[in-house]
Amino acid sequence: MRVVPVISIVCVLGALTTAALAGTSDPVRLKGRGTSQVQVMEKAAHTYADQHHLLIGKITPGPGQTWYVPLSRRHNGLAVLGADVVLVVDGTGRIRDVTPGDTPDTITLDTKATVPEEQAKRTALAQVKGADMSDTMESVVLMRGGAPTLAYAFDIWRSTGRAEEYDGLSRVWVDGHSGAALGKIVYGQTAIGQGQNTGRVTFDTKKVDGGFSMSDTTRPGLSCGKFPDSGKYLSRADDQWGATDTERACVDVLYAAQREWDMLGSWLDRKGFDGLGRGYPALVDWDQDNAGWSAAKDRAMFGRDPARGRAMTSIDIVGHEYGHAIYHATGTEDEYTDPESTGLSESTGDILGTLTEHFANNPADPPDFTIGEVVGPGPWRYMDKPSRDGESPDCWRRDLNALRDVHAAAGPQNHWFYLLAQGSANSPTCNGRPVTGIGIQKAGRVFISGLMRKTSTWNHAAARRATVASALELYGCPEVTAVRSAWDAISVPAGPTEPKGCA
Ligand SMILES: [Ca+2]
Ligand SMILES: [Zn+2]
């Protein structure tokens, strides 16, 4: 029997390494900033990659005339997690930053496992409560404390109760030589609001034979259809949408996704959701009391609250789900090894959803720093003081991954973003010190430029280092100081590799 796992969750760890590492930059798609600058930048990136025996991934342009070059390593054909870096290169060929820092040029490790796979699998299953199925993924080399370890990787699943359907729970690594469990990432379960509420809006559709369809000619890849996925978009003879609940939900989704796309371009210098001009389809009428992003299928899915009958399609929720897409399409494409990455993905969704809400400035859903307020009886999450929801921590702490709901782990970085944008006048800081805000647009640029340095070991400390580096590149000392103070205010201190400027 072939088991088909159904990923009814967001934040599943996205693209596996083999496909990801095959990618190379495409100079044609990078045109537009002066071909010579692109060539100079690429030459510098290739020289660095060759010197350090690294493979170049998808190069993406970012804010301030810089390019972000993800580099990954393989050893005996296996991905080496924790040895990947992101270069920030400018058009003069200068390498402005290497995140998270230099990586060893060579690795010595026997990649033939001495522990049998079945034994390792039993160990992996025992790490996750309620699990009843596991898939063996490609083995990897995990860098731990600078030393390489051969690891089996397992995806752990739980039966949904429906035939051949499984929810993804975790990824677990087991040492191929000692048999010990090395760590796990908990996949994000969705739990967001309900909705259908952008009011009367205009949005772009496509003229097709016999009418119009819910797809977008200027934002390739963006479309809206009905769950389950049939590959078809909604269509009708005229361009007057909103006759059914399904149409109304798709109006919300396409409108909000288009505002997010335009916000990325106008405010963050980012082209499309993937950074290279592509978007992804959305499906409404998902049979869940939820909204979600499927990293396995590159689809955003929006359900409905059965009690209230409202689609979960407010601007911030749509922005949140596509925020997961942006998170996964950014930085190196190696799988994450730090459990904090799940909460940071949720926070990325909230930050991009909030930026979208501010950009759209729609009177039916005015800009704020809460999530899901339009569709629920009240907000689901608060960025000014995350603990207002009763669960999310206001400050970073060591046990973030032990929280019951992964969305709660978004709290600290959400709070950081609020403080950076708005300051501490209406937001308590964890160190009692004030933060002067720099406004949401600058905060957004610092955030995205930091996120574009994301590697497999992404966590709050790495995000701090990356955003300090981006503020130094994009702005001056007041902004850099604000970035540092906002991290201090949520209890994420400076690490040893933090750039020293403006200190
Ligand atoms: Ca909101
Ligand atoms: Zn989410």
Describe it:
- The protein is α+β, with helices and mostly antiparallel strands and 503 residues long.
- The chain has 4 domains: 17-99, Nuclear Transport Factor 2, Chain: A, CATH 3.10.450; 117-186, no CATH class; 206-333, Elastase, domain 1; 359-489, Neutral Protease Domain 2 (Neutral Protease, domain 2, Orthogonal Bundle), CATH 1.10.390.10.
- The protein is 29% helix and 20% strand.
- It contains 10 helices and 18 strands.
- The strands form 4 sheets. Strands 1, 2, 3, 4, 5, 6, 7, 8 and 9 form a 9-stranded mixed β-sheet that branches.
- It is globular.
- The chain starts with 16 loop residues before the first helix and ends in a 14-residue tail after the last helix.
- The structure holds calcium ion and zinc ion (ZN).
- The site of zinc ion has 8 residues, from α5 and α6.
How does the SSE layout of this entry go?
Elements: H1 17-22, H2 35-51, E1 55-56, E2 60-62, E3 66-75, E4 78-90, E5 95-99, H3 117-126, E6 133-144, E7 147-159, E8 166-175, E9 181-186, E10 206-208, E11 211-213, E12 223-226, E13 235-236, H4 245-268, E14 281-284, E15 291-294, E16 299-302, H5 315-328, H6 340-360, E17 370-371, E18 381-382, H7 411-422, H8 440-451, H9 460-474, H10 477-489
Parallel strand pairs: 4-6, 12-14, 14-16
Antiparallel strand pairs: 1-3, 2-3, 3-4, 4-5, 6-7, 7-8, 8-9, 10-11, 11-13, 15-16, 17-18
Helix pairs in contact: 4-5, 4-6, 5-6, 6-7, 7-8, 7-10, 8-9, 9-10
